[in-house]
Amino acid sequence: MKPRITIEKENNGQDSDKEALEKLKQGKAALLWRKRITDIDTPVGVMLRAHQSGRGDFLLESVEGGSNRGRYSFIGLAPDLVFKAVGDKAEINRNWLQNHDDFSPVEGDSLTAMRQLVASCQMDIPSELPSSISSLVGYFSYETVGLVEKLPKPKFDPLNVPDMLFVRPTLFLVFDQVTDALYMIAPVWPDGAGSPEEKVATALEVIQNITDILKEPIPSLPAVKVDQLPEIKRAMPPKAYEDIVVQAKEYIKAGDIFQIVPAQRFTVDFPLPPMALYRSLRRINPSPFLYFLDFPGFSLVGSSPEILVKLQDGEVTIRPLAGTRPRGRNSFEDQTLRESLLKDPKERAEHLMLLDLGRNDVGRVSQAGSVKVTDSFSIEYYSHVMHVVSNVVGKIRPDKDALDALFAGFPAGTVSGAPKVRACEIIAELEPETRGPYSGGVGYFSPNGDMDSCIVLRTAILKDGVLHIKAGAGIVADSDPASEQRECEAKAGALIAAAQDAFTQNDILLKQSAKA
């Protein structure tokens, strides 16, 4: 008798049509999806084919430990809903694909409106799909802290972008780098016009459309003629920042604060497509949080090393990152700088203060006795700097949700100071302009109630052909103003190097075009 081979039929999402239809008829949201195996479609390649500039599309990737690519990457396309807020006034556009200007005011304050939106986007995630699917993706600016703490009114705003902006994609792509699976996911919602059958049919069209796009060749980014490399400009001269450090030390000496993180802004003219910067940045400074968020009128391109707050399976995580040295030219110099960093009393004191603050922030929303430090005083390496990091976790209380967890740790002590509220007050006094997205948070809310966010660090805001970079340094009692100025420059270095690389790649494209 010959042996028989039994091949089980894999669920590639065909059953999701019927399940989505049934849930819609019950007034519930659902996920309609398809799975395909592909080892040739990369997140960047798909983004180049499917992305439409200024539509609200996004790309999220991850590199852990400086060299290990994260398992999942995410693309969101063609949002049907956009939420934005300035101060305590929020607006929502539920007709985004047809009319980008069709915003309506939302009753109540911005945080209440955001909480209601997050709740309205909850749904069951099929067991066959990765749990890290997101229903809303966007950012909170640093100034959002004014919604939960009474702070001086913001000063000059050089960027003029919303304090909060989140999008809900009609198509969500998940790349599994381990199994080479690509999940194409189209959420369907019970609200809005159309019958359940029509909504399922529309979702199927969305998936078919991306399937067709994946068959197309990958286009090159358009080359732009640039006569010379733009110069790096400073929003304030080095002496002005050093004076801020001196004033901050006076507050520390007076006992107002123990530590504070003043920031400054650098700009570079950047006429190239924002995606060109992202492609260079992800190679030059691979980080745990890589993101490209492309909104109408401006884009966020970042490679943040630091969690803001994470909520997964009921566990809250904050991972303080404080204490910095530049990278060495070789492994020997790296080791020497690492030992110097870990032995530096100033850096250790700064990190310990922020580790204690992280414990306190996690404890604000966690069950009694559940807060633990699971990693302390480790070193993580990035392209231009190395950092001291620790990790704090706690079990969230039953009466708290993802937004509670987020704002328990917002803004992070590593970008504000300690005590946090007083540090924020002094930042408002000393810094001459608003921070905008810098030192706020980029992240996503999942349909199952989870949330993941990072601090907006090593991030460029591209608007009107100008690249804006902000960087700060942690100030304690014995800080040296000139050294803190150099630390800001080192932190901004990754973005500046990425911009320079993008111009180099653009020049190569121009030469290739001239030969063609």
Automatic annotation (TrEMBL):
Instruction: Give the UniProt record's GO annotations in the biological process aspect.
Output: L-tryptophan biosynthetic process
* MF term (GO), any: metal ion binding
- Pfam families reported for this sequence: Anth_synt_I_N (PF04715), Chorismate_bind (PF00425)
Question: What cofactor is needed?
Answer: Mg(2+)
Sorted alphabetically, the keyword list is: Amino-acid biosynthesis, Aromatic amino acid biosynthesis, Lyase, Magnesium, Metal-binding, Tryptophan biosynthesis
Top-rank taxon: Bacteria
Task: Name the pathway.
Answer: Amino-acid biosynthesis; L-tryptophan biosynthesis; L-tryptophan from chorismate: step 1/5
UniProt record similarity statement: Belongs to the anthranilate synthase component I family.
Q: Which PANTHER family match?
A: AMINOBENZOATE/ANTHRANILATE SYNTHASE (PTHR11236), ISOCHORISMATE SYNTHASE MENF (PTHR11236:SF48)
- What job does the chain carry out? Part of a heterotetrameric complex that catalyzes the two-step biosynthesis of anthranilate, an intermediate in the biosynthesis of L-tryptophan. In the first step, the glutamine-binding beta subunit (TrpG) of anthranilate synthase (AS) provides the glutamine amidotransferase activity which generates ammonia as a substrate that, along with chorismate, is used in the second step, catalyzed by the large alpha subunit of AS (TrpE) to produce anthranilate. In the absence of TrpG, TrpE can synthesize anthranilate directly from chorismate and high concentrations of ammonia.
Q: What assembly does the database describe for this protein? A: Heterotetramer consisting of two non-identical subunits: a beta subunit (TrpG) and a large alpha subunit (TrpE).
Q: What is this protein called?
A: Anthranilate synthase component 1
